Amino acid sequence: MWTTKTFLTKTKRGNILKIVREHYLRDDLLCGSAACNICPHKDDEFVLASNPESICALFEYPHYLVLDTNVVLHQMDVLEEDALTNVIILQTVLEEVKHQNTAIFQRLLEIIGNKKRKFYSFVNEHHKDTYIERGPGEKPNDRNDRAIRKAASWYASHLSANNVGGQFPKIVLLTDDEGNRKIAQEEGIVCCSVKDYIENVNGFVGLIDKLSKNVIPESCSKDALYPAHLTPTQIHSGIRNGKLFQGTFHASRDNFLEGTVSVNGYEKPILLQGHIGINRAVDGDMVAVEIFPEEEWRKPSDIVLEDKADDPGDLLEEEAVLLNTAKPADNNKDEITPTGKVVGIIRRKWRQYCGILMPSKFPGATRHLFTPAEKRIPRVRIETRQSDILAAQRILVALDSWPRNSRYPLGHFVRALGPIGDKDAENEVILLEHDVPHARFSEAVLACLPPNDWTIPEEEIKKRVDLRSICICSVDPPGCTDIDDALHARPIEGTTADGLVKYEVGVHIADVTYFVRPNTALDKEAAARSTTVYLVDKRIDMVPDLLSSNLCSLRGGEERLAFSCVWEIDENANVLSTKFHKSVIKSAAAMTYEEAQIAIDDSARQDQIASSLRVLNALAKKLKRKRLDNGALLLASPEIRFQVDSETHDPIEVQAKKIVDTNSMVEEFMLLANVSVAEKLAAEYPQCALLRRHPAPPPANFTTFLKAAMQQGFEIDVSTNKSFSASLDKAQIPDRPFFNTLLRIMATRCMQQAVYFSSGTKMQDEFYHYGLACPIYTHFTSPIRRYADVIVHRLLAACIGEDVTHASLLDTKQADSICDNLNYRHRQAQYAGRASVALNTHILFKNRVEIEAAVVLSVKRNALQVLIPKYGLEGPLYLPSDKFTYNEEEHFQICNGVVLKTFDELTVRLSLDSTNLQHRKLVFQLVEPHIPGFSYVPEQAMDVDAKTEEKKEEKVEAKKRKEARDTKVKKKAKK
Amino acid sequence: MPGPDLLSSQGLRLDGRRPNELRRIKCKLGVFTQPDGSAYLEQGNTKVLAAVYGPHQAAKSKSSTDGVVVNCQYSTATFSTGERKNRPRGDRKSQEMSMHLRQALTAAIKTELYPRSQIDIYVEVLQADGGAYCAGVNAATLALIDAGIPLRAYACACSASMAWRAGQPEPLLDVGHVEEAAGGVVLTVAALPNTGSIALLEMSHRLHMDYFDVVLSRAMQGCRDIEIILDRAVRDHLAEGWTKQDIVTI
Amino acid sequence: MTGHVSIRLASERVNHSVSSSNELPRFYTPGEVITGMQDFMRGHGTYAEDDSLKASVAGVMQKVNKLICIRPLKSRYVGEIGDVVVGRVLEVQQRRWKVETNSRLDSVLQLSAVNLPGGELRRRSAEDEQMMRKHLQEGDLISAEVQSVFSDGSLSLHTRSLKYGKLPQGTLMKVFPSLVKRRKNHFHNLPCGVSIIIGNNGFIWLSPQKQDVLYEGNKDEIEEYDLQPVNRSDRETMARVKNCIAALVASKMMLDDTSIMFAYEESLKYPSVKDMLDPEAMLDIAFLAQHRINNAIEE
User: Any idea where the RNB domain is (chain A) (predicted)?
Assistant: First the structure.
C-alpha cells in the first residue's frame, strides 16, 4: 500500500547532525477534483468543481488555481475574499506558510475549512507521483518551487488523462516569483502573476484594493530614508556573540518617536529614540537591537509628541525637538536608561488595524494615509480608489511592508466597519482593537444549547441536594441579568465549644458546567472567549444569551441548578466546616444592592429574607475585619457609571459608583467561597488546579510613589502588605477627603497584575495573593461570565465525585495554556471596557463643556497628567513651553510664580476637540489657579475658590507612567 | 492540546502514514551462526539485532527447578542516536528495558519445559528512531523461534500515542522518534495477539482514562498486524531452510 | 600484518539457497492450531490449549500414529540413546565429569562409564577419584556415546569403547545438530586422509588419520604420537574439509560422509583453501555437491 523513502537533513545544534527521517509515499491520495475519474473518490470528497467558471479575463476556460507560497503569504486578504474559488493548496505551500507565519497559516486553514470556497489541500509531498527529492546543491526554496511546478504539471496531466472530450479544467499557477514563472513557462505550465490575474477579474469590485503591495528588497538603497536591516544570519550571529540583543518592541503611547525593548541582561528596558533608532519597528515586533556605549545613554524624554496631521511625503522631519531634550542634563543615574537602536526585525507581529482614512488633498489620488486607532501604531499608506466612501468610515487595514524609502509602512484596505461616530462601528473598533471575539455564536455552538423551554429533569433533581425549601436570595447591581450567585444564612442548632451561636451559610453559584459540557463546540467557544466583556452599552457574552440570562441565571422565584458551597460558621465568623455539593435552588428574591440594604435597615421587616440578610451582613463585617487585619489591601480605582438614555443608548450622565454595605457583604462571601474552593482544589490537584495569584510588587515599583507621598508628609511602609495597608489607612488629610482615595489610586498603579495559573507550574509559596492577603485563591463564583470559573467548577465537581473528569482537565500543559489565554483575554476585556468608557465619555462631552475640580497625577515636560475625580477621567493638560518653565530636578512647572506639581488640586475646563475625527480627544484647560494669558476665563465671573492651592515648597517628583497603572487590584466579586 | 499538529488536516502523520499504519517492517531470521537463534529487524529506521543462546545449563545461582530462567540484556549502540553517546552497559535505562523484555518474553516462552536451564537473549539497538523496545521484543521473538524454543504464541510489541484531529481523539500507531519527541503519551504494549493476552503495558506520561481504551485497542491492533508480518517472515525463513534438508533425507 | 581483507555490504550478500523445485511442506508456527481434536497425542513442539493442539515451534509436522510432533528447523541437541557425541569437559566433579554437548543441560560422564588405562574393567578405587583430572581435565574434548537419558532430559555418556575417549590433535566444528544426518556410523576415515567424527550433537571433529598400528600400541606410544606436530599438508586438507562443511552448512545441507566427500571433491578446483571462504565459492561447492547427491539418488 505504501512505499518508503528516507531523506537526510542536516541541522545545526552546536554539532552538525545527520537526521534521517522516514517519508512514506502513498498511492491512495486523492486529487479532489470532480472532473477526475481516476482517483477513487467518495461523494463527499470532491472539493473542486468539475467545471469551474472562470472569473478572469486572461483565462477564458475553466481552470483550477495552484498557488505559490509567496502568493499565500502576501495576498491573504485577496484570498479571503469570496472571489477566488477552486484553488489547490499544495502541502509544500501549506508547510512553508506554517513555518513562516502562523497567523496566516491559521487564516488559510480557515479558508480551506470553508466548503463554499472549494479550496483543496493536496498532499503532494506524500504522493508517489509528485514527490521530488532535493538535488545536490539545490536550495530548499528552489526545491519547493520545483515541487510546486511538479504538482501543477501532474494535475494538468492527471485531469486530462481520461477526459478525451477536452472538457476538463486546466491548471493555472499563480506566482509572484519571476524566476519560478519563467521556468514554469518553459515546462509548459500556464502561469500568471497575482497582480495580472486579479486586475483582470470581473465582477468583484474592491478586490484590487486588497492586493498587497510588492515588497521592495531590503538591499535596494534608492532614496532610502532608513538604514537597512541586517540579514537574519547577521542577526543570528550578532545575538550569539553578544553584540545584539533581541526583544519585543513596545512603542510609547505618548511619543511616537520613542519606544522600548526589554532584553535579557539589562534590568531596564532599552530605550529607542527617533526614526532611525526605531528603524521601522512597529509595536509588538520582535526586533534585534544594538546597544550604544554607556556615554551615549539617555533618559526617556518626558514630552508628549504626536505625529503631524498631514503627510509630509517621504521625508523624515527634524528630530531636534526630541534630541535636544534628551541630552543627559544631569548625572542622575536613576533616569539614564540604556539606549540603542533597532538593527533588524526578527519577526513582525503585524495584525490588522482599525482606524480612519485621511484622504489625500489631491482629488482623484489613490494613495492615502491611514491613521490607526491605536496610538502606538504608525500611520499607514494605502492605495484605494474608494477614498470618497471610505473617508467617513472606520476601516480595517493590514500592513504589507515597510520599505526603506517610505516614511510610512505600506498597507492595504481590508474592510469597512461603519461610519465614524456610529455607535456600532465604534464598538466594533474597540472589540477588534482588543482582540475580543465577538462574532455571533455559530450554529454548532447554538446546537449545544438546551431547548428554550428547558426545565430541570426529575432525575437531575434526584441526584442533587434539594435546597428549594431554603430561603435563598441574590444581591446584584441593578439591571443585572446574568446572576451567578445567591446566598443564604440560617441559624442552626447547637453551639460551639465556646458557647457561640452557629450559622449555616451557603453560597450558591449557577451550575454552568451542567450545560457547558467539555469539548463541545459551546465549550470551545466559551474557552476562546474566556470572559464576558462589558462595554458601557453592550455586553459580549461568553455563553449564549439563553444560558447567561436565563437557564443559568439564578433568577428570583425560579428553580435553578446550582453548585453550592455551604459552611458552618460561628457568630465570630470562624468557619467550622465546609462542604461542596451540587444542588437545586429556588431563589426567593433577586435584589439590588440598594434593595437589600433597605431590607436590612428597615427594622420593621422581620421576614426570612431580611433576617438572613442581617446575619450575612453581620458575618461579612467580621470577615472583612479579619481580612484587613491579615493585611488585605483596600485599593481604589476610579469607577464610574453612565446613565444611558433608554432610546439612543447615548450616555446622558455619569456618576461615581455608589458603594453600600451590601456590596461588600456579597463580596466577602464570594471571597470566602473562592478561598474555600481554592484550598480544596490545591489539595486535590497538585498539578492542574486552576488558581489565581497576585505577586507582591517589586519594591522598585514604589519608589516614585513613596517620594510623592513623602512630599505630602506621609511615610508609607511597603515592606509587607499588612504594614502597607496600615500606613495607607493613616495617610489622611482632614480637609482633603479625596486625598486618601487618590493615594490608593496611585498605590493601585504600583501593583502587579493578578494572574491565573496552574498549580503544577508554580511553587506553593508563589500561590500567595498579595492584594487579598491570602495564601491561596481562585475564581469560583462567576461561571457565567468567566471561563476560569467553569474550569474550577469542573475540577471541583470531579473531586467531590459529582461529575466525571476528562483528559484535558487534568493535563498540566493544557491547563497552562488555558491560563495564558484566560489572562490575555481578561486583560483585553479590561482594556476594552476602559476604551468603551473613554468612548462614552467623549460622546457625553460632545455637546457640553464642564468646569471641574482636578488633581495633578504627574508632571511632564510639556504637560500635566490630571485626573477628574468626578468622572474618573484622566488626561494631559498641555503647557506651552514659552510660558512655563519645567524644573527637571524638582519636577514642577512654573509660570509667573505659579507652581504646579504632583497632588496639586486644580480646576479645569473640559471640552471635546472634534477637529481630528480619528482621535477625538478631551481637552483640558486650566482654569484655576489663574495664569494670565493661559488660563481659561469663564464668561461669568467665578467666585474665587476659597481653598487656594496649598503651596508647599517641597520637592515634587514627577511620576512616570507605569505599565502597572492598569493594574486593577481590588477584586470585585461583582461588577 | 499536546501535539495537535501530529496529524495534518488531511489526516496524515508527519512521515506520511495514516494514524493506523505501522512503519515498514523488514526482518530476517538466522543472521548469525554462533548463537542458537538470531534475528535482525527494522521497524522504520529503528534497527535491532537479537541473539538467543540456549536453553543451556543454568548457572547454579540462578537455576530454578520450576522452569527455564530467561535472561535478557538490552543494549543500545553508541551510534544509534543522532548524537553519539556513550552508554555504559547496564545503565538504568537499559536495565529497565531488559526487565521489560524479560517480562514480555517470559510470557511467551513455555518456560515449564526446561527446568534448570537458562535462555540468554541479547538485544542490541543499532539505530534508535522511536519504539526501540517494541522492535526489540519483535526481534527477540523471531530469534527465539529461530532457536527452536517452544513458545505459546508470538510475542509482539507495538506502541501507540494520541493525537487530535478536528477535535476528535485519534490514536497513532507505532510511534516514531519525531512523534515521541513531540511530547504526548506513548503507550507501549507487548502482547500475545494470538491468545489476546497482554504481557506488558507501559505508559510514558499520564493519559486520561477516557482515551485509554482507544489507544490500547489501537496498539493491540498494531500487535496483531505485526504478528502477521512476523509470521510471514518465519514461514519464508522455513521455506528457505527446509527444502535442502528434505532432499538430503530422501 | 598485510593481506587482503574483503568486506561486503549487506546488500551484496549471496543468497545461499540451492535451488530446488520441491514442493514445500506445510509449515506450522508457534501458536498455530494443528488440530482441534483431542484423540491425538501431544509430542514435542506442541501444546494443548483450549481443546486444541497448537504448535509451539516453527517447523513441519511429523505424525507417528497418534503422536503429533512439530520439528523445528533447528534447536538444541536432543539426545537419544546410542547417539555419538563430541563434547567438552566443563567440570570435574565427584566420580563424574560434566560435559558440554550442546544439549540444553550439561551431560554427565560417570567415572564408572570410562575405560581407565589398563583396558580391563576394574574396580574404581578412591585413588582413581583423585586421579580423575589426570585422565580428563577441564577443556578436554572427548567423543562418547549416549548411555541413557535422565528424566530431566540431561544425558549420561559413556566412553567404554576404544573408539571413544579423549580427542587429541584436530579441529572442532560446531554446526546445528539438525543438520547432522543420523547414520549407523559417525566415524569416518575420509579418502583424503582426514578422519572425522560427526557428532549427533552437531560437534564435528576433524583429525589426521592415525596409523591403525597405533591402536594396538601401548599408551606411551599413543601419547607420543599425539604430541607430534601434524604436517602441513594434513592441516591444509583438514582446513579444506572444514570449509567444505561450512559451505554445506551455509546452504543448510545435511551432513554425512557422502555429502562431505562430494563437497571435498568439488572443492578441489579451488587450489587455495582460503579461496573457499568466498561466499560465491561456498555456494558453488554446495550447489555442485547437491547436484551430485541428486544424481546419486536418481541412480
Answer: 464-802
